[in-house]
Amino acid sequence: MSALGRVVRAGVGRRRVQSLVMALTTMTAVTASVMAAALVVASQQPFDHSFARQRGAHLTAVFDGGRATAAQVAATAHAHGVTATAGPFPLVSVGVRPQPPAGMPAPPVDPVLTVAGRTALGGAVDSLTLTSGHWLTGAGQIVVADGWGPPDLLGHQVHVPGVPGNPALTVVGTARSVTSTADAWVLPGQIAALTRPGTTPEQQMLYRFAAAGSTAAMDADRAAVTAAAPAGSVDGSQSYLVVRATANRQTATFVPFVAALGLLGLVMSVLIIGIVVSGAVSAGTRRIGVLKSLGFTPFQVARAYVGQALIPAAAGTVLGVVLGNLGAVPLLSQAEGAYHTGTLTVAGWIDVAVPAAVLALVVVSALAPALRAGRLRTVEALAIGRTPQVGRGRWAARLAGRLPLPRAFSLGLAGPFARPGRSATIAAAIVFGAVGVTFAYGLGASLNGVQRGINLDSPGQVTVDPFPRQIAAPGSGPAGPPREADPAAVARVIAAQPGTRASFSSVFTEVHFLGVSDAVTAVAYQGDSSWGAYQMVSGRWFDRAGEIVVGHRFLQATGTRVGDWTTLEGDGRSTRARIVGEAMTTGDGGMRVLTDAGTLERAGITEHSATFSIALRPGTDRDRYVAALDTALGPLGASAQARNGEISATVVAIDAITAILTLMLVLVAGLGVLNTVVLDTRERVHDLGVLKALGMAPRQTVGMVITSVAGIGAVGGLAGVPLGIALHDLVVPRMGEAAGTRIPPVDMAVYHAPQLVPLALGGLLIAVLGALLPATWAARTRTATALRTE
Amino acid sequence: MTAPIIEIRDVSKRYDDGPPALAGLSLTVAAGEALAVLGPSGSGKSTLLNMIAGLDRPTGGGVTVAGVRVDELTETASARFRRERIGMVFQFFNLLDDLTVLDNVLLPAQLLGTGRAAARDRAVELLDNLGIDRHARAYPGRLSGGERQRVAVARALMNRPALLLADEPTGALDTASGAEVRELLAELNDDGQTILLVTHDLALAESCATRTIELVDGRLARDERAATR
Ligand SMILES: Nc1ncnc2c1ncn2[C@@H]1O[C@H](COP(=O)(O)OP(=O)(O)OP(=O)(O)O)[C@@H](O)[C@H]1O
Ligand SMILES: [Mg+2]
After folding, report:
1. Chain centroid to CA A335
2. Confidence class of residue A457 from pLDDT cuts 50, 70 and 90?
3. Cα A38 from chain centre
4. How many A from CA of B91 to the centre of ligand 2?
5. Whether A414 contacts chain B with CB within 8 A
6. Residue B215: is its pLDDT beyond 80?
7. Where does this protein chiefly localize (chain A) (predicted)?
8. Which of A156, A383, A404, B100 is most exposed, with the fewest beta carbons within 10 Å of its own?
9. How far apart are CA A765 and CA A152, in angstroms?
10. pLDDT tens-digit series, residues A372-431
């Protein structure tokens, strides 16, 4: 082995703790970087990516089975511009009744499921992604779309009460279609058993086209398909562009915070790797002096030290890539659920680019101080040995010595000033950690607030639907639209029910406003709805007919502001209404109007099938109330159920992603501190020995070492909190904007003293935790040994 | 005859492998003595000093210093014991380079928790006595070797230790500075300070020791009292 090789090997081997910490730090930084990069990359146009990968259907067309045969439908594959097709798949819509999991009430209405008969999971168009269980292997099985129905459906049965024999199907898997072509799939042979007598299944055909980039191109493609089919046989069709717009809006909600956290993670990793590597090399300055006095050239010295840094860093990087890919699995599966896409994976280039960048960073961080030390005159390098950069930070030592503190603490306080560069970097790492935690806390708190606000879409503890509990008894023939219960009668029953504190009814409908081309969703309230008001961004809730409350998009689309007048257009009549408030709503992309039913009546619009929201008197047993009310409403054809606050999958995903990324940030920051303290105590081992010989007790030593980073931690934490708040104030409104709403002030103001104090102390905590281990090592070093080291 | 300040019984010390650094050594030192420990390199002199200061534990035997069994102390108790009873001077001074001379000298009092004013008075008095008061605000790096060793001695004496331990105090000094330190130690002993010093410097042993022992391979090879000094 060459002299250089020996020096490198000894350098790695003899400094085992340091090499281990370096490997550990690189590993964590690479893990965090791979995860962050994977998420940021996956958040770029996730729909387009999975659409391409799954060969998504540009057009999904449904044909009337009575007017076109399967062969005729299949022939449309030859229409102009079609490049690939899948199908025809027989298609039926059936009401199904899943076995409710224990403790959950059956849904009041049997949900209607669009079931396609399909043989294979894959295909030339709309290849499905299996998300759990397995694909169909025989009769009596069904695969449902991921996210459909109650949770934990896998392995359970669903009944189909609307067709003869009330067949039962076992859910054997869940799958995802990138454009949601169906709610469930069975083998084609099963479709006949799911078809109501006297009806013919429809035929579904999926197409990809040569040109599909614009609405115009899609219109032309659609026309070509329609022309190729028997006249009047096309029941309906859907362009992927519609699905894409919705998906992109959903993604856009995520991009701001994913980008913010991802960037924090990447910058932090760069910072930590830089400080760890350059710190390790600088700590070896004296050794470099010895090597030079033996005749090593500066270049050889630099090579030796780069090699010494690269060995543990490379080991850490390899492990980090593996862990990063593992860690990305739960992260990306959260994102999959949120983006409604097929499987997201770590982009292959990340696994190459991140390690390459990290190793390049290691080389640069090692080279700079190694070259500097290599160029130092040998005597100087030899002299540096014991205390680093003698002379720096003396003013701090003198100042700290004057403080009325135990000497161990004042010595520790002055510590960081002897190494200002390293201290600044570690402070920056702690600042980033504190920013991450502060931001994550605020994001979570704001989203919880927003979620609570959005749940006010359907407020109250109990709701009453104007339908009987089940629409179709087994074998009772085709399920027609149910007869609605009389709202006035329902209202009287509710008011008479003991335990009712307040109630109102609301109904969704579509209305038109002067100057707005598309229909606007309106929610018409009857009764005093003020207790169930949405969270307000500005203005107030309406309190009489003629006043409306609107979502943010409505204001944008109409160019109006709170206080302005608008014109509601009804059946030949129109009425003026005043905008009295802006509410937070993400429903209908924020294009929503909330008002008293009286407002709509003035425009000649009346709606009947309203849902009632009920608030209970304090102390009322909800379950018993629901049972009693349900019995009382039965004869009217209405049903009551308890309302469970829903947590949107989006919020759950954001919370989970935030938690994972923040944890990584804190971990990296803590490791940075750990590493710095290891280096510091290693450099000061001789001084530590002297102090112990003078009678410094172990506890005083631990105190001194911890104080040496506690100051940095406290300052970093204090600086990080306002920055984290600023990031929150920047990012959260953008997320709201993407979801079509502004965020109410009440949800933005989430930082109060009781949370700020622990957040500000967070930096201190990171520092103390990171320093604890090396501090106890320092206290345990044998004094006699320490005094022998030079 | 005053009570023994150091009582070492059958002490042996063996590092991981290799021959014992101390092999069944027994030694009693009375208060007021100035004991010079001689011996070839590797004979266990520094090891003996470390045992007495409680910096290391013997593998066998007992070490009693000023009535305290130092080999049985916990880390914390042994640190407190050093603070109160022991002053140490090293060959390479071991001053903290980023503290001024005065701050270095103050350290032991600060670790002990002595009041500010009292500690300061004591430090100023010591620096004055040792003739280095004009360097009080300087950093050790600027002092000569002899001056640095005087600072180290001042620091060692700060808490009026019962025992002053010195390991090759003149080993890194030129002849003139060595002579200064020699005189200083002799004067201290004349004033009643018990001193145990490890040295290769026969002149040092002769000029200030009241008793000389020699170690060879961790055993006592010679023990003689100076007739006069
Ligand atoms: N921490 C240690 N670990 C292992 N061996 C040690 C340690 N300290 C001392 N020794 C060994 O113990 C023996 C005695 O060492 P010691 O330092 O006491 O000798 P010394 O008499 O002070 O020598 P010198 O005059 O060179 O200072 C030596 O062989 C040395 O190698
Ligand atoms: Mg020695």
Report:
1. 6
2. low
3. 13
4. 9
5. yes
6. yes
7. membrane
8. A404
9. 40
10. 776 766 555 555 544 444 556 677 777 777 777 777 777 877 777 777 777 887 888 888
Contact B49 CB / ligand 1 (< 6 Å):
no
Rounded CA gap, A735 and A450, in Å? Answer: 11
Place of tokens 């399909």: A118
Q: Is ligand 1 within 6 A of the CB of residue B41?
A: yes
Give residue A733 CA to ligand 2 midpoint distance, Å: 70
Q: CA-CA distance, A150 to A172, in Å (whole number)?
A: 15
φ, ψ for residue A155 (rounded to 5)?
Answer: 90, -15
Q: CB-based contact (8 Å) between B165 and chain A?
A: no
Find out whether the beta carbon of A789 lies less than 6 Å from any atom of ligand 1. Answer: no
Nearest CA in chain A to B102: A398
Residue ranges with strand state E in A50-96: 59-63, 82-95
Estimate the crossing angle of helix A753-780 against helix A649-683, to 10 degrees: 40
Question: Has residue A587 got a pLDDT over 80?
Answer: no
Specify the pLDDT at position A476: 38
Report d(CA A635, CA A517) in Å as an integer.
42
Under 8 Å between Cβ of A599 and A547: yes
Burial (CB count <10 Å: 0-12, 13-18, 19+), residue A399: middle
The amino acid occupying position A254 is F
Task: Indicate the residue type of A546.
Answer: G
- Tell me: pLDDT of B29 over 90: yes
Helix H or strand E encompassing A406:
none
Pick from A113, A618, A658, A551: which is nearest to A331 by CA?
A658
One-letter amino acid for residue A390 of the chain: V
Rounded to whole angstroms, how far apart are CA atoms B30 and B196?
11
Question: Residue A787's Cα: distance from chain center in Å?
Answer: 54
CA proximity to B37, closest of B202, B229, B227 = B202
For A330-380, how does the pLDDT look when each residue is reduced to its tens digit (9 = 90+)?
878 777 766 666 667 777 888 888 889 888 988 888 888 777 776 766 555
Q: Is A691 close to B98, i.e. CB distance below 8 A?
A: no
Residue pair A159/A167 in contact (Cβ under 8 Å)? The answer is yes
- Return the structure tokens found at A213: 């980039």
Cα(B27)–Cα(B23) distance, rounded to whole angstroms? 12
DSSP state of A338: H
ipTM reported for the complex surpasses 0.90: no
Q: Which helix (H) or strand (E) holds A470?
A: none
pLDDT digits (tens, 9 = 90+) for A728-770: 898 888 878 777 778 888 888 888 888 888 888 888 888 888 8
- For residue B221, report the distance from its CA to the centre of ligand 1, in Å: 17
Give the H/E segment covering residue A658: helix A649-683
- Report the C-alpha gap between A340 and A342 in whole angstroms: 7
Nearest to B111 among A386, A401, A407 (CB): A407
Q: Rounded to an integer, what distance in angstroms lies between the CA atom of residue A430 and that of residue A715?
A: 9
Spell out the domains of chain B, with CATH numbers in brackets: 4-225 (3.40.50.300)
Task: Please give, one letter per residue, the 3-state secondary structure of chain B.
Answer: CCCEEEEEEEEEECCCCCCCCEEEEEEEEECCCEEEEECCCCCCHHHHHHHHHCCCCCCEEEEEECCEEHHHCCHHHHHHHHHHHEEEECCCCCCCCCCCHHHHHHHHHHHHCCCHHHHHHHHHHHHHHCCCHHHCCCCHHHCCHHHHHHHHHHHHHCCCCCEEEEECCCCCCCHHHHHHHHHHHHHHHHCCCEEEEECCCHHHHHHHCCEEEEEECCEEEEEEECCCC
SS3 assignment, position A65: coil
Q: Structure tokens of A708? A: 């040496």
Q: Which long-range contacts (CB under 8 A, 24 or more apart) does A215-223 make?
A: A215/A239, A215/A241, A218/A58, A218/A59, A220/A81, A221/A58, A221/A59, A221/A81, A221/A82, A222/A59, A222/A61
Q: Which range has highest mean pLDDT (A84-93, A773-782, B79-88)?
A: B79-88
Cis bond leading into A88, ω under 30°? Answer: yes
Residues 297-356, chain A: which have Cβ within 8 Å of B?
none
pTM (whole model) above 0.80: no
